[in-house]
Amino acid sequence: MSVFVAEVARPALVFRGLLGQAEPILITGGRAVADYREVFVGIDVAKLKNAVAVAESGREGEVRFWGEVDASDANMRRIIQRIAAKFDHVHFCYEAGPTGYGLHRLIRSLGHECVVVAPSLIPRKPGDRVKTNRRDALALARLLRAGELTEVWVPDEGHEAMRDLVRARAAAVETLRVHRQQISA
Length: 185
Prior knowledge:
Layout: H1 2-16, E1 27-28, E2 31-32, E3 38-44, E4 49-56, E5 63-70, H2 73-86, E6 89-95, H3 102-109, E7 113-117, H4 133-146, H5 157-184
Parallel strand pairs: 3-6, 6-7
Antiparallel strand pairs: 1-2, 3-4, 4-5
């Protein structure tokens, strides 16, 4: 009698996926697909090309180099939209530098979170002296996922314009002083 009960109960358990067999919809490419996918993107910003790396959420999340992209707004917009289409929630970060905060404004205008980090506040290993765009982007993505980055204040366009004006005036005053010294000498 117990054999008959086991035979009857087994198809119900298999149907619900309780016997260690995953349902076909839950397997894609050999690993289980989660309902909510979050990703952390590190961007190493440069004048001509930006290096992009992606770290998937979780301890076992994969960290991979996405590629290098031209630094123009159109190309960055396209890569941001391509990454955002594959994941539910996207976090971006990049190092502050001479390129300004235009990328931060672009990412925020597309509706994503973006963190700008001071290069001096990024944790580094004592022996890690090799700096490449690829390595920096991978490290930024990893550290953003771990929550190890310290965000800096990003000025709005008005503050940034005022900073540029003050810096331009200071440079003009310095140039005038240097030329006066040259003439008097």
